[in-house]
Every structure is written in C-alpha cells, then in structure tokens.
Amino acid sequence: MPPLDTDPPTILARRIALKRVKRAIRSTGWTPSRLAREAGLAASTINKFLYQDVSHVLSTTTLTKIEMAAERHVRSLVQDAK
Questions:
Q1: What stretches in the chain show pLDDT beneath 70?
Q2: 72 with 32: CB under 8 angstroms?
Q3: How large is the C-alpha radius of gyration of the chain?
Q4: pLDDT the model gives residue 6
Q5: How far does CA 20 lie from the centroid of its chain?
Q6: How far apart are CA 55 and CA 76, in angstroms?
Q7: How far apart are CA 16 and CA 58, in angstroms?
Q8: So what's the pLDDT on residue 1?
Q9: In this predicted structure, what is the pLDDT of residue 20?
Q10: Does residue 15 contact residue 63 with C-beta atoms inside 8 Å?
Q11: pTM
Q12: What Å distances lie between residue 62 and 11, 69, 77, 79, CA to CA?
C-alpha cells in the first residue's frame, strides 16, 4: 500500500478540502485563524492544513464546522444589508 500522502484518493480528498477551506476564507474575508475560532476549532487545525506539508485530510465534521461558520457570517452580512 502506498504512503498516505501519495494515495490518489487521499490526494483528491485533500485538494477538495483545500478548495472548500479557501472558499470559506475568501467568502468571509477572515484569516484562517479567525475562521477556525468562529468554527470552534483550534487555529492550528486550519493553519497546519493550509501551510504545512501534512498528509492528513480534514474530517467531514471539521469541514462542516468551517463551512457552517462561513455561511453564518455571509447570512449575517445579507441580513445587515436589508
């Protein structure tokens, strides 16, 4: 079995997760640390995933927390604009 970081399904999952995290950062205008805090995560969870050569993939629970925090922020901006 190849190492985790060269396993094609893992590489694809990491790319997808990376796009999702970057989209959340872009949509909120937050730093990765702020996104983590708003999602109830340790800042290192997102920072290590973005900036270090790690071979793990974020869990679906973690990705959901990130996306929910971003969605709450965007919804609050829409509400404030009304």
A1: 1-6
A2: no
A3: 14
A4: 64
A5: 6
A6: 35
A7: 10
A8: 41
A9: 96
A10: no
A11: 0.84
A12: 18, 11, 23, 26
